[in-house]
Design brief:
0% strand; Four Helix Bundle (Hemerythrin (Met), subunit A); elongated; mainly alpha; 211 residues; 6 helices
């Protein structure tokens, strides 16, 4: 994502007929939003007497989330670049056999990279979700719904990224490599999904007023 652009600029660009930014970029951005929300809950916990015992832990988590947020933003930018490389590869000449061979190789290489970026998004979600889980359980309970939104965003980021891994792997010529790569991403995605759903169940129980 172009962090110098306003949200309106970003949304306008997203809704245009340009293929970038697309779903992969949005998935990574959801991860960045989740980290930012997590940091907010940390900051609403720090300095409160009621949560003095977890203050240092919240400070440490906030620092980690700042780093993860930047990782997600970098991946959002890399997703755009990876797709553009795929497009460039498809535009290569294919008049001669040599040109066709080179073009096919470039397409395969670019598509592998296009799958690798969302795979890293899923992995980053896996790293972040334990922090958000801790925040939800130990942080300021007046903001537990915000922690829940962060968890939901991580689940969305992971699932969106997995869809992008799937579509890129489906285009690879090396089906064995594609299947192995997809399986690895699927395992990590399922881990994120299961943990996110578990945390959301607990948060909803905490918020349940009417029984």
């Amino acid at each position: 994502m172009n962090t110098s652009a306003t949200i309106k600029n970003y949304l306008d660009e997203l809704s245009s007929n340009s293929p970038t930014p697309g779903g992969g970029n949005v998935s990574a951005f959801c991860g960045a939003l989740a980290c930012s929300l997590g940091m907010m809950v940390c900051n609403l916990t720090i300095g409160k007497k009621k949560y003095a015992e977890v203050e240092n832990e919240m400070k440490e988590i906030s620092i980690r989330l700042e780093s993860n947020k930047n990782d997600f933003l970098t991946l959002a930018d890399e997703d755009n670049k990876a797709f553009e490389q795929v497009i460039e590869a498809f535009r290569l000449p294919k008049e001669t056999e040599e040109e066709k061979k080179l073009r096919n190789t470039r397409i395969e290489t670019a598509t592998i990279q296009a799958a690798a970026v969302p795979s890293k998004v899923i992995e980053t979600c896996r790293l972040v979700i334990p922090f958000i889980k801790t925040i939800a359980y130990k942080g300021n309970q007046n903001s537990v719904s915000d922690a829940g939104v962060a968890v939901a965003l991580l689940k969305t980021a992971s699932e969106g990224a997995y869809l992008n891994v799937m579509i890129n792997c489906s285009s690879l010529s090396n089906k064995t490599y594609a299947a192995e790569f997809l399986k690895k991403s699927e395992i990590t995605f399922n881990e994120v999904k299961m943990e996110a759903e578990g945390v959301l169940v607990q948060i909803k129980k905490t918020l349940q007023v009417f029984k």
